[in-house]
User: Which sequence fits this backbone?
């Protein structure tokens, strides 16, 4: 937990400060003389350099997407050995159900982020959504770490699917369209409002194939709604893939189990490894519908 006294390093004069979410990082709402801000006390294991890289990307995005994405404020400070960052508050409410308008706006917002990220050179050390990092051989190592939490049958399925995903990323065609990815765009990172969707939590941002971001976005939506996300994306820019998006959806599912492995060493937050594994196994058992 942090207090108002920990905010002295930021260029604001606090009036009201309260915890609003504690899923992974602790997120606070700060009402100050200068406006309303979100303050994040990042989870154990996140470095200051990682947070500074995220804020650098947001600083690149906000001139093109004002009010759509959070604007960074001040520098990163440290409290209890964990980074603390501040961004301007993005208004809106979490969506209650996947409507056509919401799905189309998710696609539009994602396409706008991809377009606005052109020309951004990520700092060294930013994690990559490709075969050199998230989807390297390390993926299989992480999956094997959490197989004791699964039945023997489910463990075999998870390893098989992880091998397929790693092979797919290793063999991506040279003309695959790449760029900066949000990496975690789903309902809890979307804020619905009249003037268009707000997008938050860029902590998983990094370079990779743009199609993976779409796989993340549609994975959490019913099959019948997924085409509206793609339609919204196409209203801004061409789709970054040909054929079927299902392999990228499967990559998102496997990544949840890899994330569970990280949580074994970095406890805390609302994402318990057992819950992530349960979601992964349930998703792996479902047939993939072509998208």
Assistant:
């Amino acid at each position: 937990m942090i207090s108002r006294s920990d905010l002295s390093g930021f260029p604001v004069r606090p009036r009201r400060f309260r915890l609003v979410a504690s899923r992974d990082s602790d997120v606070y709402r700060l009402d100050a003389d200068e406006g309303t801000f979100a303050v994040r006390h990042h989870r154990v294991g996140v470095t200051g350099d990682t947070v500074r890289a995220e804020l650098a990307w947001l600083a690149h995005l906000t001139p093109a997407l004002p009010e759509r994405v959070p604007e960074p404020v001040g520098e990163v400070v440290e409290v209890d050995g964990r980074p603390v960052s501040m961004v301007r508050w993005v208004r809106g409410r979490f969506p209650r159900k996947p409507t056509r308008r919401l799905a189309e706006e998710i696609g539009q917002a994602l396409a706008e982020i991809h377009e606005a990220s052109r020309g951004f050179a990520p700092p060294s050390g930013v994690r990559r959504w490709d075969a050199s990092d998230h989807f390297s051989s390390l993926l299989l190592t992480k999956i094997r770490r959490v197989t004791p939490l699964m039945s023997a049958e489910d463990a075999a399925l998870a390893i098989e699917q992880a091998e397929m995903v790693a092979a797919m990323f290793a063999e991506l065609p040279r003309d695959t369209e790449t760029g900066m990815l949000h990496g975690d765009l789903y309902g809890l990172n979307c804020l619905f409002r009249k003037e268009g969707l707000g997008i938050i939590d860029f902590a998983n941002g990094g370079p990779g194939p743009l199609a993976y971001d779409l796989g993340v976005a549609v994975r959490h939506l019913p099959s019948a709604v997924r085409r509206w996300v793609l339609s919204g994306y196409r209203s801004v820019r061409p789709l970054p893939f040909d054929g079927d998006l299902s392999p990228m959806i499967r990559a998102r599912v496997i990544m949840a189990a890899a994330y569970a492995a990280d949580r074994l060493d970095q406890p805390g937050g609302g994402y318990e490894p057992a819950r992530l594994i349960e979601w992964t196994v349930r998703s792996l058992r479902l047939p993939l519908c072509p998208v």
